[in-house]
Amino acid sequence: MKNTNILIVDEKIDLVEPLGEIFERIGYSVTMVEDGDKAIGLLKRRNFDILLTPSRLPGASGAWDYKIMKRLCPSMAVIIVNSVREKKETAEILESEIEAVVDKPFNVKKLMETVDSVLKAPSILIVDHRLQDRQALKNMLAEGGYRALVAKDAREAMEMVRESDFDIVILDVGVEGTDGVEVIEAVKKIKPDIEVIMMIDYSTVRRVEDLLRKGAYTCLYKPFLDTEKLIRVIEEMRSRSIRASSQYKRETGRREG
Question: Based on CB atoms within 10 Å of each CB, which residue in 3, 95, 128, 250 is the most buried?
Answer without folding.
Answer: 128
